[in-house]
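Hi L.,

You mentioned the student needs an example of a multi-chain input paired with its predicted structure. This one should do, with 653 residues in total across all chains.
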Amino acid sequence: MAILSLSAKSLLNRRATAALTIFTIAISVALVLGVEKVRTEAKASFANTISGTDLIVGARSGSTQLLLYSVFRIGNATNNVSWRSYQKIADHPEVAWTIPMSLGDSHRGFRVLGTTQAYFEHYRFGGKRQLALEQGERFDDLFDAVLGADVARTLGYQLDDPIVVAHGLGREGFSQHDDKPFRVAGILAKTGTPVDRTVHVSLEAIEAIHIDWRSGSKVPGLTVSADEVREMELRPTQITAFLVGLNSRLGAFRVQRFVNEYRGEPLLAILPGVALAELWALMGTAETALAAISICVVAAGLLGMATMLLAGLSERRREMAILRSVGARPAHVAGMLVAESVFLTAAGIVVGVILAYGALLIAQPIVDARFGLFLSISAPSSRDLTVLAAILVAGAIAGLIPAIQAYRRSLADGLVVRN
Amino acid sequence: MIELSDLLFRWRADDPPILDIAGLGVEQGERLFVKGPSGSGKTTLLNLLGGVVTPQRGSVSLLDTEMSTMSGARRDAFRADHVGFIFQMFNLVPYLNLVDNVALPCRFSTVRRERAIERSGSVEDEAIRLMRQMTLDIAALGGRAVAQLSMGQQQRAAAARSLIGAPELIIADEPTSSLDAESRGAFLDLLFAEVAAAGATLVFVSHDASLEAAFDRVVALSDINRADAQIGAD
Ligand SMILES: Nc1ncnc2c1ncn2[C@@H]1O[C@H](COP(=O)(O)OP(=O)(O)OP(=O)(O)O)[C@@H](O)[C@H]1O
Ligand SMILES: [Mg+2]
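Structure written out for the whole complex:
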């Protein structure tokens, strides 16, 4: 007890260095908490992207690739699924519903997804949540579009605004389907998933805008106007992929085998949960690297503290000798340095937590807008608390370095420090 | 009070001995002056008396308690309870105020804390009383950083600290060397008065022979120390 208040007073006496040390530790603590926050939120939002879907079916390729383009709108399908095969599988007795998806066009950097009403009925994210419209209606007319929340916000679209879909996935300057503009019929509520960054139209609309196109470019001399196309029978010949819901989850493996052994064309069915886990494991390396970096930053901060205390020792030899003369044991002297380390680390943790929440407050809208990742502001998780406790312990251990040195010196010096 | 016998001490195992003393005794209440040139081992002797180091051979006993066989922690506790130190300079801990500096020994010794409380009601009040005795104007000096005090003021504060809680032995290592002749005399008078009032024993080390007249007994370290190594004597 005698040494605790001595340590505190001694630190107060060296406010400037102590404050700098605390700040160094605080920054490293904030970094650790930040990385941990991003990691858990990314993982959660990742796992929340899709739920309630039993199988994802696409042309045969890698399961990760299929998951990426069908759910995350990242990358492209190398092949399509014929409408016939789609219908065969949709008619399988164990299949309850399907959501066909036609990808490949874009609007100002956002993907356009051609689908059916089933999408609004059956798509689930974040547990069992259904898509909800913030404004307007689902698409009804052929040239109706329903925007994800981020699309509407970023581009400043209102209901009934006209939008033009571009052929392909380039940002601008691609050939535009400007002869057949769409109308914003609805805007979806925010989901925190790639749905927010998607423009939804009907499958027929995708067919309609490509009616006078063949393999990626307009057929010269063939123009079908928007009004003419309304009169035509628009039946898709192929789609990119489709989501499948089953009558019973138990049938998942059976239907998966049915799809994978389908003779009409090479197809692949994946279980979203399994594919998500595989993909997350793939990112595990990045996760580990980030964790390793933040551990190193904390270690650097704590070593900096040990250095500061160690460097201060030679100045404090007289002080230690005085304490020895009034009856302090070398262990008291060492304990004083450990106590100082614990004070500094604890203060660093407190300031670091404040910094982390401050940074979170500032970064939240930016990260949300740029990466579609919503970092919720919540109390530190039990894992965070464990990490903070571990840092405190590490701080005490780092304090052993100057403590041992002080112990040795006070034994060697005796009562009078000779220079 | 103090009994040294057949004592041999070297700082490091491969150094020649600094001290080799056949015997030295100090009576309760005695004021002993130990003189010797610089580097002769005076401070080393005080380290031994305070139990900060132990001899390689022989015994050091204080208040009929053999210290050289005690564990380090027991010796430290024993020193906290029974010995007050005054050094030549740098007596005060820079981050403590004057009162806390004087009260410092009471943090490490329950005996001395209880005696201080018994005497003045609280440790702080006893510290203030002793500083008054040592003619320190606590009202004027109390708020100042201790490093800003004059040398004489610092030494008087150190004397007050050595006396708090009435330890049986006061050890002073050249406490007057950094004072001018005038304050030296005044300091000694105050110290003697307080040591006498507390009934304590005083071991006072100095190479300043002009002070010896005031003491009960004078010992020249060179007369009792058979070691003549004095390595690194400066
Ligand atoms: N802590 C120590 N570690 C190693 N050697 C020491 C230590 N303290 C003193 N010595 C050595 O012991 C010898 C005696 O030193 P000491 O300090 O006892 O002399 P002193 O008589 O007090 O001198 P001064 O009058 O200068 O204070 C010196 O040679 C010194 O180098
Ligand atoms: Mg000396």
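You could point out the following to them. The interface with chain B takes residues 2, 6, 9-10, 12-13, 318-319, 322-332, 414-417 of chain A (CB under 8 Å). The CA atoms of residues 277 and 283 of chain A lie 10 Å apart.

Best wishes,
N.
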